[in-house]
Write a structure and sequence with these properties.
Blueprint (H helix, E strand, L loop, with lengths): L6 E2 L11 E3 L1 H9 L4 E7 L4 H14 L2 E5 L1 H8 L7 E5 L7 H10 L5 E6 L4 H13 L4 E5 L8 H6 L9 E4 L2 H10 L3 E11 L9 E6 L7 H6 L2 E4 L14 H8 L1
Parallel strand pairs: 3-4, 6-7, 6-10, 7-8, 9-10, 9-11
Antiparallel strand pairs: 1-2, 2-5, 3-5
Helix pairs in contact: 5-9
């Protein structure tokens, strides 16, 4: 009989991750629990109906889905009884945006938040989190879907900042911006068409939105922001037309 308690990978074969949970019931419970889940691994030989079921659960939980070879799944879990399903539980505990605002209030400081509107590269997200922590931000907000989550790669790239900086995962960045504005937070995005940073007054309660590496801040999110800021560039005509998102974040922060 399959045990109901979430099963963790043990040290056999490949070096498994402590956050890897496997088995149909344990993974189902994890996905339904509301706890953070980064990635769901499904065996390539899994029945289509079963795969569709876990794909739907993963989408609702904001987790990515990857199909993997059954043998690789066996090596990762260290057992043959993985039932074709495994999931990486989040490495950190997420908080709410409201908790971030309350933390700022308790410190007697104006809220200072960073929002990711689809940063996809985990190394970039880690670098942004490192800068955010060192610049005194009260937290970073990331989307449940459409961007990198806090994986071990992000934690490593952040030099540990990801484990110290409060992180919130939200279903909709646009709705989060509306809520922040309702609470007196001014929201600015980093955008090529924005006002020069040195001419912008970013004091007081501020949230800075950073867009994806390829397309930047989405049109809807940009429209919701109170304003946009840009960094000046000296190398005009060289074909290098923008800063890396983590570099831009560090400079603006």
């Amino acid at each position: 009989m399959e045990e109901r308690k979430p099963r963790r990978a043990r040290n056999e074969g490949e070096q498994p991750k402590e956050s890897l949970v496997y088995g149909k019931n344990p993974v189902t419970e994890l996905l339904r629990s509301g706890a953070g889940v980064d990635t769901v691994l499904l065996s390539e030989g899994l029945a289509p109906a079963v795969a569709a079921y876990y794909t739907a659960l993963a989408k609702e939980a904001g987790a990515a889905v990857k199909r993997v070879n059954p043998n690789k799944l066996r090596l990762m879990t260290g057992t043959e009884s993985h039932q074709g399903v495994a999931a990486f539980a989040s490495e950190i505990s997420y908080v709410s945006v409201e908790e971030m605002l309350e933390a700022a209030k308790q410190k007697g400081e104006p809220p200072f938040l960073v929002l990711s509107d689809g940063i996809e590269d985990p190394h970039n997200l880690g670098a942004v989190m490192r800068s955010a922590l060192l610049c005194g931000a009260h937290g970073i907000v990331i989307p449940k879907r459409g961007g990198a989550s806090v994986t071990p790669t992000v934690i490593k790239s952040s030099a540990g900042a990801a484990e110290r900086l409060p992180v919130a995962r939200v279903a909709n960045i646009g709705e989060t911006i509306r809520r922040l504005k309702d609470q007196g937070v001014f929201v600015y995005c980093a955008d090529m068409d924005g006002s020069p940073l040195h001419r912008s007054n970013l004091t007081g309660p501020i949230a800075l939105v950073l867009g994806s590496e390829g397309s930047g801040v989405s049109p809807l999110v940009k429209k919701l922001c109170d304003g946009a800021v840009r960094l000046e560039m000296a190398a005009a005509g060289t074909g290098v037309d923008s800063y890396n998102v983590s570099v831009a974040a560090g400079t603006i922060l």
